[in-house]
Each structure stands twice: as structure tokens, then as C-alpha cells.
Amino acid sequence: MENPYKILELNKNASKDEITKTYRKLAKLWHPDRNKDPSAEAKFKQINDAYNYLIDDKKRNFLDKHGRRMDDEESAERSNPFEGGFPFEGGFPFGGGFPFGPGGPGANFMQFHSSHSFSGPNPEQVKEMKRKQLHIKINIELTLDQVYTGIKRKIKYPRIKIINGEKKQEEDEFELNVNPGVHFNSQIEMKDKGHILVEENESEIVGSIIIVISESHNIVYDRDIKKQENLICKKKLTFVEALCGFSLELEHPSGKTLFFESHDIIKSTSQYKIINKGLPIYGREKTFGDIIFKFEIVYPDQISEKQKEKLGEIFNLKINECTKPETDIMTGSLILYEESESDNEENDSSGPTGQSVQCAQS
Questions:
Q1: CA 172 centroid distance within chain
Q2: Which of 217, 244, 264 finishes a domain?
Q3: Does 8 reside within a domain?
Q4: Are 28 and 221 in contact (CB under 8 A)?
Q5: Domain assignment of residue 345, yes or no
Q6: CA distances to 5, 13, 233 from 66, in Å
Q7: Which sign, positive or negative, has the C-alpha torsion 128, 130, 132, 136?
Q8: Which domain holds residue 123?
Q9: Under a CB-based contact definition with an 8 Å cutoff, are residues 177 and 200 in contact?
Q10: Is 200 in the same domain as 85?
């Protein structure tokens, strides 16, 4: 798979905040609901995968150290003993991508002979090492609505049974039950549902299914990384709305419409919230997080002189005229200035242009 840094156009020194900010920007750009490019869906999944990889400290450290990704079936303790693979017919529900790692169990399955005398793992440890190699990892991508309500599904899937080095595919079924408010990147282990190894004494070692939860991008809400039961909503308000009040209708993950109004003065430097309207708190019934609003105040590009006069009358505004001192004077111009990246890198002193207001200064 392609390097996650390359997908997100980041360098290895990027902070978690930079990773999250870049992810949100690219996810909005490539979301299939917004971008009608035929490649948008595949690109969006790549972006999600890269983000989920880089915010996992263990996986990111492995990538930085070895220069390659840690495979789905690979951990810091072992390498992947499986080769080959098999298709999962009909795809996997919930839009989660490939249901298995990069291959299925193969003929070169690592053999342990626990009866052999050597200084090393005891028989139980050897058995556990084998069991881990029989795990099936399944990635499931949930929408925010599904995270809110939870899901319960019966799922049929193929698995492999290995006898005397030969593998046989069989079909099994499990019930997936994801509770409301589940955290993204969390894992659910379902024991005795993975691949099967039949040993020489005809005993069986059975792996687990490891469900890895990811979350699709939502165009209205971002999930708070620090407190995942909280939802962050960014909205633009006009200058008049910020001063005089406004009302909003939003789609809520519960499927209902959230309506609220405000008659207070809104400041762009402050955050506001509606309590108990966020996601369910995982593992706690009938308790919810909050919705946190970050408002951006949009000012008009220009207003007429009459509008200025009316605003001045409303706010009792009196502009103090500058008095010219008797001594030598300096004059300055107040201009609109927006800092650019080149200013940070090169300390460029070239001045921008804009409308100016002059006032005599001593």
C-alpha cells in the first residue's frame, strides 16, 4: 500500500494536529458526496486509511523505523505467515473495504512442535502464538448515524481450516453487535471465529475475528479526538447574525432535526455548546456528550455611507478627529494585511496594497 505520508502530502515530522487538519481538508475535497470525479471514492478511502494509520502511534513508529507499513496481519511481535488469499464474494457491508488482510493462510504456515525440548516458550505460549496467526482482521467503516444508534448484524464469511498443511475453505457466520458511541480505531475481538489449525493430535487451535472500527467523514460534524462523545460543528454567521441573533436547523445523527436559536452576541474567539446532544457515551446508558460550535463571523466586503451613519447612530459612535501637532509629524497608512507562507519562511518585507486610513502621528 502507498505510504500514508505521501497520501496526505505530509512529512515525517508532522504533528497530530497537522495530520488531523490535513485529513479534514482532503476528506472534504474528495468526499464522494461532493466530488463527482470517478476516482473520488477510492481516493477518499485512501485518505481515511492513511489518517487512521498515522494517528496510531504503534503503526506510525513502525513506519518511521522500517520505512514500510505494518500489514494488517503484522505486529511488532511477529511477521505475516500467510500467503495467497481468497475473495470475499459480494463485498463487505458498511463500506469498510477489504474484509481480510493482505492474504489468507497458506501452505507455509509456521510450524511449532511443542513436544520438542528446547529453551523458549512453554506449550501454552506456543499455542497462543499459533492462535494469533490464525486471526482474521476485518475493517468496518461506520457512518456517524450508525455510531449513534449502534448496529447489530448477522454476517456470513469464509475462513480456512488447515489439516496436515492443506487448507480447506468453509463458510461460517457471526453476529456483529457494535454498541452506541463506539470509538473509531477501537477493536472488537470475537474469539473462536477465525481460521482453524488442526494439529497432529487432532486438537484444534482457532483464531479470533478482530473487528477494527473506522468512521466515514461527516459533512456537518467532526468528532472530538480528545472526547469522542463530543461533536464539533463549524458554522459561518454574518456580522448581523452575530450581533442580533440567529436560528439553525441541523441534521442530527439520531435521524431527527436539531433546531435552536440564539439571541446573544456571538464572538468568533469563543466556543459554544449544546449539552447532551452529542454522541452516546460508550458503555454508559442514556448519557451523551455535547455539540460544540465554532462560529466564524463573516463581515461584509463593503457598506455604504448611509449604512455607516446608521450604525454610528445606533452605537452612538463618535470618531475622534486627529489634531495636527505643532512639531514635526510622521504620517502612517492603515492597510489590510494578510500574512502569507512566504512571510513566515523568508520574512518578506514587500508591502501589500489596500485601502488606507491616514492619521497624523507625532
A1: 32
A2: 217
A3: yes
A4: no
A5: no
A6: 14, 16, 38
A7: negative
A8: 71-217
A9: no
A10: yes
Which helix (H) or strand (E) segment holds residue 45: the answer is helix 40-54
pLDDT tens per residue, range 176-201: 999 999 998 899 999 999 999 999 88
The CATH number of whichever domain residue 185 belongs to comes to 2.60.260.20
Written as one letter, the residue type at 122 is N
Nine cell digits for residue 111? 510450524
The helix/strand/coil state of 66 is helix
Taking the C-alpha atoms of residue 232 and residue 250, their distance in angstroms, rounded to an integer, is 13
Asked whether residue 333 carries a pLDDT value surpassing 50, the answer given is yes
- Give the bridge partners for 215, in sequence order: 142
Q: Mean pLDDT, the chain, as a whole number?
A: 79
* CA 308, chain centre distance (Å): 45
In this structure, the number of other CB atoms found within 10 A of the CB of residue 273 comes to 16
For residues 143 and 218, give the distance between their C-alpha atoms in angstroms, rounded to a whole number. Answer: 8
Across the range 253-266, mean pLDDT stands at 94
132 and 198 fall within a common domain: yes
Confidence tier at 203 by pLDDT (50, 70, 90):
very high
**352 in any annotated domain:** no
Instruction: Specify the 3-state DSSP secondary structure of 42.
Output: helix
Cα 110 to Cα 26: distance, rounded to the nearest angstrom: 41
Whether 118 and 200 map to the same domain: the answer is: yes
**In contact, 139 and 97? CB cutoff 8 Å:** yes
92 pLDDT above the threshold of 90:
no
Contact partners, residue 350, CB within 8 Å, separation at least 6: none
Is the entire prediction scored with pTM above 0.90?
A: no
Q: What local confidence, expressed as pLDDT, does residue 61 receive?
A: 87
